[in-house]
Amino acid sequence: QKEVEQDPGPLSVPEGAIVSLNCTYSNSAFQYFMWYRQYSRKGPELLMYTYSSGNKEDGRFTAQVDKSSKYISLFIRDSQPSDSATYLCAMSAGSSNYQLIWGAGTKLIIKP
Amino acid sequence: GAVVSQHPSRVICKSGTSVKIECRSLDFQATTMFWYRQFPKQSLMLMATSNEGSKATYEQGVEKDKFLINHASLTLSTLTVTSAHPEDSSFYICSARVYYNEQFFGPGTRLTVL
Predict the structure, then answer these.
(1) Which candidate, B16, B6, B46, places its Cα nearest to that of A92?
(2) Span A3-40, pLDDT tens digits
(3) Which of A22, A26, A32, B90 could lock onto B101 through a cystine, CB 3.0 to 4.6 A?
C-alpha cells in the first residue's frame, strides 16, 4: 500500500463546475500538506500549503485537511479551461525530514 | 512566490557524453535543494536531497556515480548525468526548500540521449 493514494483520473468536468480533488494517506505523522499544479512539460507550481487540520482558502481554491480521517481535499470553484492540468498532493512529517511524499497526481480536464 | 530557474530547459546529447543541469534560486537562499526525475504520465520520483556545503543524500536505487550533485552555494545546485545512455532520457526537475516544508520548483529539463 502506498503512503499517499490519489486517483490518477482523468477527471473531466464542464467549465464553471466545482472540482473536488482528494488524497488519502496512511502515515499519521504527516503534518504539512500541499497541493501542486503541473502543466504538461513544466515544473510543479505550489497552489496551497496547509499545516495540520482545517481549511484554507485562496481565491477560487480551498484546501481541506482532515487528519482524523487521513484525507485531504482541494476544491476549485468556477473552474476554467486554464485549470486543466495535473494536480499533485504532497505531504511531509516535518521536523528534520523535509522530504515530500507525493500522490500519483490527478489529471483534470475542464471542458469549455 | 519564490523563483527557481533551471538551465538548460532542453538538451539532446549523444550516448556516452555527460550533461550538466543547473538549478538556481533567484530571489532567496536555499539551504536544501531536491532533484527529481519524472517519467511521462507519472508522479515525481525523488533522486536526491542536496544540502549546501555537504554531500547529497541519494535515494535507494539512484547511482551516486552516475548522477553527480553539487550544491556549492546557497543559490546553486548542479546535477551532472555522467556517461548518459538512452535510458537516462527523462524530465529532470529541481526544487528548493524555502521555509519549513514548502518546495518551489524549477521549470524542468528535458534530457534526450540518442
Answers:
(1) B46
(2) 999 999 999 999 999 999 999 999 999 999 999 999 99
(3) A32
